[in-house]
């Protein structure tokens, strides 16, 4: 089939006409947009003079965002400390925290919000563009580049500089120098600056509780405010985390209540008797010790003192139902710890009762009397 050249020419002419028409329409709308830009800017400025309803952002959401940021940063910090030895941690702690804090705050450069703010459906906006009646009826203005970098510099760099200066002052003891020393004066200035900062932060927090705008002093200085990232959104409160915390809290309270009622030492010895063979206990008996040596004292001191046999003599002797002598304090402590029964260290018998050795006390008193008489001078 031979193509019709006239049809091709018609189609080409129509396409050229359509393209020229589109270009003319685009130029027309572009010129109109340039003409109305000045009118729109003047209209925007005039709207600022009209009263409008204030933008209400829940204070609890902003405070929860700060709390989430603190908890998340604390979790990252705990994982960071596992990578370094205590010596490196103590020496370079401010630098490591500054690096971690800087990495954590990089989300402000990317999305204009921290992790905690994103979890609360919040973001920062440039409040300088929302003065007067523009605070709740216009599109949220993003942060400027200066505001983003200034925010990171104040939250990360300011904290690092303050920690380093404080550690230097404390390490060199500038507060203990004479009153005329410049270093002591500098230390006093630091104390005043810290007190002023705390006072201003407290005032800012009180103002925040009143108007709900700037939760921190840094936000107020830079005129950045937390607003809803999506305003048309139902506030969904998840109680999953709260329920988990309540369960763990109840479980912890139960353990704190039940643990003092369980005699772990007695339970441990009971399991040892049930699981270990009888030969194990016979090999560990202390029947080779002299009778004037307390086997419990010897057992407690032998691990740390090589001369335990000399320093573990029986004091205030008490006799068990199996016929062996121990110090009263030692045998009474064992019985209390084991719940009233205990296995003798010399013979392995079960100790249930103890009694005082009065005969031994009488012999010791008589021996002391004879010693004292021998020391008296002859008349």
What does this structure look like?
The protein is mainly alpha-helical and 379 residues long. It has helices at residues 5-47, 59-81, 86-104, 106-111, 115-119, 145-172, 182-211, 217-222, 240-258, 264-275, 278-283, 295-301, 308-311, 328-338, 358-375; strands at residues 122-126, 224-228, 317-320, 325-327, 342-343, 350-351, 354-356. The strands form 3 sheets. Strands 4-3-7 form a 3-stranded antiparallel sheet. A two-stranded antiparallel ribbon has the order 1-2. The protein has a two-stranded antiparallel ribbon with strand order 5-6. A hairpin with a 6-residue loop joins strand 5 (342-343) and strand 6 (350-351). Helix 2 (59-81) runs antiparallel to helix 3 (86-104) and helix 3 packs antiparallel against helix 6. The termini are far apart. It comes from Rhizophagus irregularis (strain DAOM 197198w). One of its GO terms (biological process) is protein ubiquitination. Belongs to the pex2/pex10/pex12 family. It is found in: Peroxisome membrane.
Total count of strands:
7
User: For the CA atoms, what is the radius of gyration?
Assistant: 41 Å
Fraction of residues in helices? 55-70%
Nearest-integer average pLDDT: 78
Which structural category fits the helices and strands?
Answer: mainly alpha
Terminus-to-terminus distance: 160 Å
Shape: elongated
Strand content range: 5-15%
What's the total helix number?
Answer: 15
Order of helices and strands: HHHHHEHHHEHHHHHEEHEEEH
Strand order of the largest sheet: 4-3-7
Largest sheet: 3 strands, antiparallel
Low-pLDDT regions: none
Protein name: RING-type E3 ubiquitin transferase (cysteine targeting)
GO molecular function: ubiquitin protein ligase activity; zinc ion binding
Keywords: Coiled coil, Membrane, Metal-binding, Peroxisome, Protein transport, Transferase, Transmembrane, Transmembrane helix, Transport, Ubl conjugation pathway, Zinc, Zinc-finger
Domain RING-type: 294-347
């Amino acid at each position: 089939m031979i193509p019709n050249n006239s049809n091709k020419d018609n189609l080409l002419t129509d396409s050229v006409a359509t393209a020229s028409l589109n270009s003319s329409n685009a130029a027309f709308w572009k010129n109109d947009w340039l003409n109305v830009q000045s009118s729109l800017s003047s209209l925007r400025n005039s709207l600022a003079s009209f009263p409008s309803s204030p933008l209400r952002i829940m204070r609890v959401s902003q405070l929860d965002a700060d709390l989430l940021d603190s908890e998340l940063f604390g979790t990252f910090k705990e994982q960071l400390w596992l990578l370094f030895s205590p010596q490196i941690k103590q020496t370079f702690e401010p630098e490591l925290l500054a690096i971690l804090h800087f990495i954590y705050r990089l989300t402000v450069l990317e999305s204009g919000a921290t992790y905690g703010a994103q979890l609360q459906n919040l973001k920062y906006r440039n409040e300088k563009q929302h003065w007067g009646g523009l605070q709740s009826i216009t599109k949220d203005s993003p942060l400027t580049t200066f505001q983003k970098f200034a925010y990171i510099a104040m939250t990360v760099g300011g904290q690092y500089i303050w920690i380093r200066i404080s550690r230097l002052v404390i390490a060199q003891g500038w507060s203990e120098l004479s009153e005329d020393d410049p270093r002591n004066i500098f230390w006093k200035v630091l104390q005043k600056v810290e007190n002023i900062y705390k006072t201003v932060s407290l005032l800012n927090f009180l103002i925040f509780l009143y108007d709900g705008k700037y939760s921190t002093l840094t936000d107020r200085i830079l005129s950045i405010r937390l607003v809803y990232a999506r305003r048309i959104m139902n506030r969904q409160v998840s109680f999953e985390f709260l329920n988990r915390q309540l369960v763990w809290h109840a479980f912890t309270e139960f353990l704190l209540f039940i643990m003092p009622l369980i005699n772990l030492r007695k339970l441990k010895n009971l399991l040892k008797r049930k699981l270990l063979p009888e030969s194990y206990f016979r090999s560990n008996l202390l029947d080779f010790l002299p009778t004037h040596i307390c086997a419990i004292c010897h057992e407690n001191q032998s691990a740390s003192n090589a001369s335990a046999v000399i320093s573990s003599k029986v004091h205030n002797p008490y006799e068990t139902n199996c016929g062996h002598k121990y110090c009263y304090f030692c045998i009474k402590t064992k019985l209390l710890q084991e719940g009233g029964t205990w296995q003798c260290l010399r013979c392995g018998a079960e100790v249930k009762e103890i009694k005082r050795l009065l005969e031994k006390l009488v012999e010791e008193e008589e021996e002391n009397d004879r010693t004292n008489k021998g020391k008296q001078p002859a008349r």
